[in-house]
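assembly run, all chains below
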Amino acid sequence: MTTDLYLDDLAPGQVYGSGEVTVTAEAIKRFADAFDPQPFHLDEARAATSFFGGLAASGWHTAALTMRLLVEGAFRPAGGIIGAGMDELRWPRPLRPGDTIRLESEVLEVRPSRSRPAQGLAKVRTTTLNQHGEAVQVLVANLVVVRRPAGA
Amino acid sequence: MTTDLYLDDLAPGQVYGSGEVTVTAEAIKRFADAFDPQPFHLDEARAATSFFGGLAASGWHTAALTMRLLVEGAFRPAGGIIGAGMDELRWPRPLRPGDTIRLESEVLEVRPSRSRPAQGLAKVRTTTLNQHGEAVQVLVANLVVVRRPAGA
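ok done. output:
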């Protein structure tokens, strides 16, 4: 069972996991066709001679798949997952067709808001790992998280 | 006519524009259903009582639409738009149904690589503006850009 988390439940060092998803060449091309129509995301032959040396998912596809796993994963703030801004977003290696990814989300900081007592910020690093345990994305996000209401 | 850009063509202060795109409620929900299935991105009624006070696009949808405009815009590095990492990514206000967005991309820094003489990094700030000229996304990306080949 998953319980909604309030800011008061979060503490640095907590680690949350996720389910996993396998990305297909078809899904990589479909996303690229809609949002990032560059040859190395669309066409195996042209990708082979590109920077990536083979078909690779758009980084924004990796980010979108990460969000999906996050929303469905163990880290469930009561008010939803709302990013105020990112401190870091990078793609250390490409996401390839056939890769299976999962998340590790670690709480880095928890900061109640002075001006808005009903909420605060949590800084969370979410690492997206492929089936070899290698990072394909590192995201450090500042999330708006509500505080536990009095009596809850 | 758009000419492919090499690192050697870039200089701080240059500003590049883009075309525009209008986002519909249907597109917001379709993206959310695939990648960010949270009530405030999926359902007008539940969005009305949420943090966003109405239907809002997933930030990752805003990012993906921005990438599409970037790929089709005036800023066209010869090797493609390849992000090594982001220094900043934030969503100052929500992207709403009916909003029309366009980009302003400003070159902030240009840095040839010491270890790889054929390429370098360009730091580019891309601001995604709605029809009122308000920023819905600010992205500062470090892009891998190839240098002009000898004789080209």
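The helical segments of chain B are 25-35, 39-42, 44-48, 59-71.

The first strand of chain B starts at residue 15 and ends at 16.

not gonna interpret more than that til we talk
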